[in-house]
Amino acid sequence: MKESLGRKIFNVSNIVILLFVGFICVAPIWHVICASLSDPSKLLTFRGLLLKPLGKINFEGYRMALKNGSIVRGYLNTILFVTSATLIGMAGSLITAYALSRKDFMWKGLVTFILAFTMLFNGGLIPTYLLVRNLKLLDTVWAIIIPNCLSVYNIMILKTSFSSLPDGLIDAARIDGAGHFKTLTRIVVPCSKGILAVITLFYIVTHWNSWFHIAIYITDRKLYPLQLLLREIVILNSKSALELAGETGELSLARELVKYAVIVVSIVPMMVIYPFLQKFFVSGVMLGSIKE
Amino acid sequence: MVKKTFRQRLVRDFKMNKAIYLMLIPVLVYFIGYHYVPMLGLITAFQDYKIKLGYFKSPFVGLKHFQRFFGSMYFWRLLKNTFSISIQDILWSFPLTITLALLLNELKNKHFKKFIQTITYLPYFISMIVVCGLVMDFTKAGGLISTIVGLFTGTSESLLTNPKYFQAIFVGSGIWQHLGYGTIIYISALAAINPDLYEAARIDGAGRWKQMWHVTLPSLIPTIVVMLVLRIGSIMSVSYQKIILLYSPSVYETADVISAYVYRVGLQERSEYSFSTAVGLFQSVVNLVLIIAANKLSKKLTDSSLW
After folding, report:
1. Hey, where are the domains in chain A?
2. Which ipTM value was assigned to this complex?
């Protein structure tokens, strides 16, 4: 079928609009990457959006960031927290989703209600803080890992996915004498690799980027994850930029560069993981929208 | 078949699903411990809570803290800002997200579509702190956005410290973060539309534009309604994390929202645990009422609802 002229005009302008939207989404991130590689003295006087690094490309910012003990420790802390919280979260979510997907489990409705209600109502900031404080968990690793380690949203997505597995598959395993644990690990998990990848990604992203509960529960700088250091470098510093004006030029130049380098280092893992999982997480978000 | 008594059913279920019972214990401990115990902690809102005295010995003061909050000058300001930010966000983000999804849906080249989707999802994966760092960078005096705004106003000033611009910056950066990711749900709804409907419309002589109005949009309505219900249910909870990172006393006038105020009064500047719990409780209750009402409404209007 031949396309009309109007249709052709629409197609071209559609592509132009979408390229523009895409550019806006990427440009700020590209700007930061370029800034982190720029010549710091030129960077300071530059106004506008960077499309390529200013001056000769230099890795000074990254070198200084890697030499900085607290940034390296923050990075390691983040990796440690993300790994443990994700493992705990995945284990809990698998179990719960499996239990809720069993049609013969008597307490299915009640457990679903207990979980779902927390999405609608919660104790709020202060009572939760007081709980952590009364349990003497302030300034411990647990205060970082336990909050948000189980997401009802993720559990519900998994449950929907598990429920869609053919009944015969699970019944056969049960008849063959496999216990629930074995059925879960040998049958359900291998059949749900795609969705498990998505949920893992959701957990990793949440934990990698989370900072607020850590900021209120943790004062010990040895436990700081990368995000809290970023807050100090990126947010608090620029807020008190005026007070720091007395600083020597050299140091504030370096500070700018380190700032951009740390931002890049903090977002790279997410940027690398998600495009690979993209085809899976689209289906994950879809499952999240299905209700019973 | 004779109906079994509850006891019999319980024993049978326990025998059959022993492993499930066992496995669920830690999960339930987590939810009850971390989510339900703080709900009991809401009693603080009706006390003059002192750490030393604890929940049991702190004096009960009834609605004192609520009265103080409703009577304070902050109440209306917080309410106004919270609603103003949320409503602006809804008014901009819904049409933009749906439009982007429709435009993506019109693309014939699958690779180009995938490419645009991939790069528009990107901002969603950037942490709030980095996003706010970027916002500060672009809106400081001499920053990219300040310079552009400066072309119209004449001076390139820092925008974040100007109460006039705070809400626009907040909503705008929020759209940047969520626009691409928000389209996923609509794109999958679009993919599920029965192609026969388009075929029928074509036979009836409908052009592309008419097909969009009479086939595409009506098929999207259930999705749009559910998303709106969800959004309205959270109308009171503006992303306080972002507010806390971006605001400063000079813009409290337009930037201060309920949840940020709870944080400030409860943990940051002062430790008025009881008062801020009361303010937080007020917000949670309004939220709960809103989401239940929105869900009822959507059930009535479109048959689609959350539960």
Report:
1. 1-58, 60-289
2. 0.89
